[in-house]
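Board notes, transcribed. Complex of a protein with zinc ion.
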Amino acid sequence: MRKIFDFHIHAGHLPDWTMAARKFWMETGPYSGRLFTPEGRFDVEALEGILEAEGVVGGVLLPEYAPETAALVPVERVIEISRELPRMVPFGALNPHLHADPAAEFERQLDLGVKGLKIHGVHCLHRVNDPRLYPAYEICRDRDLPLMLHAGTSIFPGVRLRHADPYDFDDIAVDFPDLKVILCHGGRGFWYQLAEFMVQRHERVWIDLSGLPPKNLLRYYPKLEKLSHRFVFGTDFPGVPGIAANAAAITALGLSDEALERIFLGNARRLLPGLIAD
Ligand SMILES: [Zn+2]
């Protein structure tokens, strides 16, 4: 079985999520019956069993600070899970509407042990190039930590697509040429072509393939083989048809073995040096 690193896994108990997020996402797919206890608590042992069974060597665990549209999953939760399950890499998250001093909050999260930062402008209702976040982006650049940006649609009530404006994302790549930027969902919905162009134009922009139907990837990204050093596998777990199932669908696309190795594991290793065990 090919080893897989899942760059996009959501934590949180069911009651942390809005009813719409539960209905349209968290409770879809094969996992929710096993992953959550009858009270809706996220079961770390169940997660470990699922990852083990599907050949997943690890993953990035994401908190979420979007109480109005999706969820409030505090960073403490992902830290707690990664302590129990060290193959999981905890990331931080910021919402400038909730965190009065985003850089100070990010420093606090770094002290807790996060290894990168995720920003979700569409759910948190702010532009990703909001100047209030730039000091936190400087921290990521200076410490060589990856910055994940939700880059594409979301269908939950109240989200605003203007915050998925591709040119806002390009601003960050231009303003921080040395920052590792990951476009989560790679422009999902309406700007795949621009996302692929940004990967080509900017040396430190990657795409995470989570939340996309694998069978369509070559249509979305015709240069996937050539740019395979800049794509990472991810699923948006637990709302996914299956981690191994998605990986199998990508394997069936006809990419070279080298490209598949990079997408499933090698690129994640380079983005998170020393954090993914052999
Ligand atoms: Zn996600």
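The chain has one domain: 4-271. The pocket of zinc ion is lined by residues 8, 10, 236 (CB under 6 Å).
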